Fold this sequence. Notes:
By secondary structure, this protein is an all-alpha fold. It has one domain. The chain contains five helices and no strands. The radius of gyration is 20 Å and the shape is elongated.
Amino acid sequence: MLSGRSQGRGKTSFVEHRTFFHLYHSFHRLWIFLFIIFQGLAIIAFNDGKFNAKTFRDVLSLGPTFVVMNFFESVLDIFMMYGAYTTMRRLALIRIFLRFLWFGLTSVFVTFLYVYVCPK
């Protein structure tokens, strides 16, 4: 007895691996938040707790850090889904690569803005 539902794909894009990168990928928002908070608090602490124009320029370095970490996360998406590309739906695959291109372009643009617009 075969039901009509058995003709479907089953589980798609599921590959079981456990590495540090998978742990990072599972909690990427938490890691990004912790790293950004640590960087911002360290900048304020090393400026003696004073929030002046120099401190503000230093805190602006959080922007490139944020977009580069999101770009790293999209690179991990591409590498960790490698075994599942044959079973993925085309729209999901296109979304992953568009996300990679978007974060690549924004990381270059925001880093360029920080380096050239905010002189030390």
